[in-house]
Amino acid sequence: MTPPAPRALFIPGPEGLEVVIPAVRNVVLLVFLGGWLIAWLFGELTALAAFAGLLASQPSPGQAFLGFWLIFWTLGGGCAALVWLWTLGGAERLPMGSSVLTLHWRVFGVGPAWGYERHRIYNLRVMSGQSAPPMRTGPSCRACARGGSGSTTTAELSVLGQDFLSRKPDPWWIA
What we know:
The chain is of the alpha+beta class. It has 3 helices and 5 strands; from the N terminus they run E-E-H-H-E-E-E-H. It is 41% helix and 18% strand.
C-alpha cells in the first residue's frame, strides 16, 4: 500500500519558501450543505418578511421571539456558509520571510493572517491520526500542528523547518 500523495504545495518565492495547504474538498459536504443553505435562505427571507410585517403592527411576544430566533438563525446560516466556502475554495498559506512565519487562512484570497517571529517558534511538528490535538490558532499559538489524513508529512515538515530555521535573521534594528 502506497501512502497518499502530499496535499501541500511548496512554492519558492523571492522572500523564501511558501507552503500552500488546500482545504479538503468533500463533495458530499458541498452538495448537502449547498442544498441546506438554499433551504436556509428561503427560511431567512420568509422570517425577515414576517418580522417586517410584525414591526408595522403592535409589539407582541411573538415579535420578540421571532427577532431573537432570526438573530441565531442568521448566525447559524453564516457559519454554515463559511464552512461551505472554506470547503469549496479555502487554503492555508505559510509564506516564510527571513524572520517571520505567517499563517494565512484564505477563502478565495480573503481571510485573516497571524505572524510569528522566528525566535519565538519552538516545538514545530506534525501530528497525525487520533492522537493529534486540535489546532490552536491566533497570536497565542506556540506550536502549529497539522493532523488528519493527507496532511503534510513529518519528512516534509522536517525539511521545511530546517530551511526556515537555518536562515540568518535580519538584525533587530533593520526589521
